[in-house]
Every structure is written in structure tokens, then in C-alpha cells.
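If you are new to this repository, start here. Below is one unmodified record pulled from the training split, so you can see the exact layout before writing a loader.
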Amino acid sequence: MKEALATSRTWLYNITSSSVFTA
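And here is the target side for that same chain:
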């Protein structure tokens, strides 16, 4: 569960970064 949370957090971070970079 701890790893899943970390993965989700990283995924969310990547999506946010991509959105900001695209914008």
C-alpha cells in the first residue's frame, strides 16, 4: 500500500508537470 501511494503521487506529479509544461 505504501508503494502504491508513492506511485500514485509520482504519477500525479508527472501529469501536473506535463500540464504545466504544455501550458
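Two things worth knowing about this chain: The two ends are 33 Å apart (CA to CA). Residues 2-22 form the longest helix (21 residues).
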